[in-house]
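Predict the 3D structure for this chain.
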Amino acid sequence: MAVERLSLKTLQNPLALIEDFSRDCKLRGMTAESVRRYVSSLRIFLKFLEKRGINLEEVNVQVLRDFLRHVIYDRKAKHKTVENYFSALSAFYDYLAFEGYVSSNIVLPFRRRYLKRYKSDFDDPERKLLSVEEMSRLVNSILDPRDKAIAMLLAKTGIRRGELLRLDIEDINWEEYSITLKPTPKRSNRTVY
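Done. Predicted structure below.
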């Protein structure tokens, strides 16, 4: 079975392809924030291609190398950001291959070859966790009662920023001193104490 090429209509409007891809990501259960980041990365890639007169069908290893140079040297992106760009590209080309627009995902072998070497040269420092004493000093240095309550809640429960933002007063069980979080794909235990 021959693989279909991108249609002329699709080539003229790659943003429509990205929109289809974002709907596919949502259908596969990706978080809204992940989808937003993927779409943002893909738009940056499209602008890069547009400036060079290249369409999605013409992307090859050399174009990917040029984009890697662009994000490292021109955009001065950190390793994690570079990883995010190429993760989005890989997912997008995986989608294009699945839908029959391209024969294979060219980004996958590129990531294995180039980004591991890049990471070893420019490894980000590991996150430093605060000790109990440091966290205590941080919380006690906050004067505003609302901000202090937020810091305490984050520190004592380990909830994520997005989970905190989605909390409603009804989520708090005052008798059991617990909070029921809204369901997310990243959390299995929704009750925190």
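The first helix runs from residue 8 to 12.
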